[in-house]
Amino acid sequence: MRRQYCNPAVFMLYQEPLMIVEGHQQYVFDETGRRYLDFFAGIVTLSCGHSHPKVVSRVRDQLETLQHTTTIYLHPNFPKFAKALAAKMPPGLDVTYFVNSGSEANELAITMARAFTGNTDIIALRNGYHGGTSGAMALTSHHTWKYNIESVPRIHHVVNPDPYRSPYQGTAEQIASRSAADIRELIKYSTPGKVAGFIAEPINGVGGVTQGALNYLGEAYDIVREHGGLCIADEVQTGFGRTGNHYWGFQNYGVVPDIVTMAKSIGNGLPCAAVTTRADIAKSLATRLHLNTFGGNPLSMAAGLAVLEVIEEEGLQANAKVMGARLKRGLTELMARHRLIGDVRGMGLMLGVELVEDRNTKAPAKSATAAVLEATKEMGLLVGKGGLDGNVLRIKPPLCITADDVDYALEVLDRALSLAERK
Ligand code: PMP
Known about the structure:
By secondary structure, this protein is an alpha/beta fold. The protein is 38% helix and 16% strand. The strands form three sheets. Strands 4-10-9-8-7-5-6 form a seven-stranded mixed β-sheet, with helices on both faces. Helix 11 packs parallel to helix 13. It is globular. The structure holds 4'-deoxy-4'-aminopyridoxal-5'-phosphate (PMP).
């Protein structure tokens, strides 16, 4: 049925597709009732856990009262959620525009940056992913996600600061500085000398959990601002406490962006996304009519308000920090025993394990990664896959996991890696 009636571009993760019909917190169930520990959380979306009772009851109440009107009428949920998000941001970032997906949020962010600065060129990172609509696809820097059609012009990609596969030598900090310096070169050679903005994920999610040393964003932002540009943080994956130490990924770098884009965890599974910025920048959109039919709808706003409360009440950010550290420690121990592991990286519960055929050549172990994924599924654990070559295990569970879940996942990964190494 799916093959006949659904878009053929929709792909599935496993050789024998998995049907998931139910979810509770960190667990999902297939149609036979078999339970899986979900360490991918609907692609980094169910941060509060599947069917979280508070989120469900708030959404159900709202659905029974009023589903949709659009923002041309007043409804309290819309400004209430915008205010609640502002309270989570550094001072000054207090105006929010709601949309429905990360791609739309990033489209809007670059539109705002261009409208506000009067400049056109936008800089993004190689190995970044920002969505699949035309502007977002142009920002995305993976050939695998780009159709061979005319791209939105004046978008450029600079060197990624990830030390594992950097073209530069030196410490992670030196590599970050050299990578930031590439922005200056790019501006000099490929733009009129002024730019509209720079967009980066604090940790590249789809790209396989890569990031630069913590001096990167500060140095990058300085260069961009020197050339008239705004700095955009794509927090679609890194936001809402996932990195453990901070609520937002950018805070790990000690920077304050001009525009923050969010999606995924913001609605814990309901279609919701947002762009938060300063009032002066937001005004740039007020020069024309602009509306998003479902943006700010009462249901998504109710979900979002519940999400913020649950993260707070259940200490999910602190749990991400503690469980993330336990998991990363365990993964690093696995690296000592498994030659397939080339790198273990990430923060909090946004972790990546890069698999390579050989630690010196770093040749991507693509088929071994697929084999590990299959084996973990057989043992009741779901993890994700990423990286340009599909050779990175992406481990991004709901933030409510326990120490037992972590230990179980490590045992499963240990066995799955041994099986893949024997092949
Ligand atoms: N930005 C990042 C960092 C993402 O990971 C994604 C989705 N994987 C997007 C943007 C696009 O979000 P959406 O699929 O909701 O359009």
